[in-house]
Design goal:
- This protein is mainly β and about 130 residues long.
- The protein has a single domain, classed as Lipocalin, CATH 2.40.128.
- It is about 5% helix and about 40% strand.
- It starts with a helix and ends with a strand.
């Protein structure tokens, strides 16, 4: 009886943390990613400038917490669970908290909910 209880306890998983992302165990955001899809999910007009990512553009998340894009944008990033915080190196440098919906060894997807629009980006790993 005691052996059965010990065996049952050893197979019981701890409660999950809502901030943890199921990424297959090994996936890391560090690397170079190419944008394969984006959607702004709004009927409102959004003015995009040259610093925004388009399909085919790349972003490189470096292990030192910096990033750069193929459009010559640079900044800082950090990740905690499902939250990806990105701050562009510019005069304002306001950090934005994106929610990661998928992170695997080959796919990265995250969105930013602005209330009036939900900016969704999907990437494939290129290195």
């Amino acid at each position: 009886m005691l052996a059965m209880m010990v065996a049952a306890l050893s197979f019981t998983a701890c409660g999950g943390d809502d901030d943890e992302i199921d990424n297959g165990g090994d996936a890391s955001i560090v690397g170079t990613w190419e944008c394969t899809y984006y959607d702004f999910g709004t009927d409102h007009q959004i003015n995009l400038d040259d610093s925004d990512l388009d399909i085919g553009d790349r972003i490189c998340f470096k292990s030192d917490g910096t990033y750069y894009t193929s459009d010559n944008e640079t900044g800082r990033w950090s990740q905690k669970g499902k939250t990806l915080t990105v701050a562009v190196d510019d005069e304002i440098s306001i950090p934005f908290d994106y929610k990661i919906t998928e992170l695997t060894s080959t796919t990265l997807e995250f969105y930013l909910d602005l209330g009036f629009a939900k900016l969704l980006y999907r990437f494939k790993r290129v290195s």
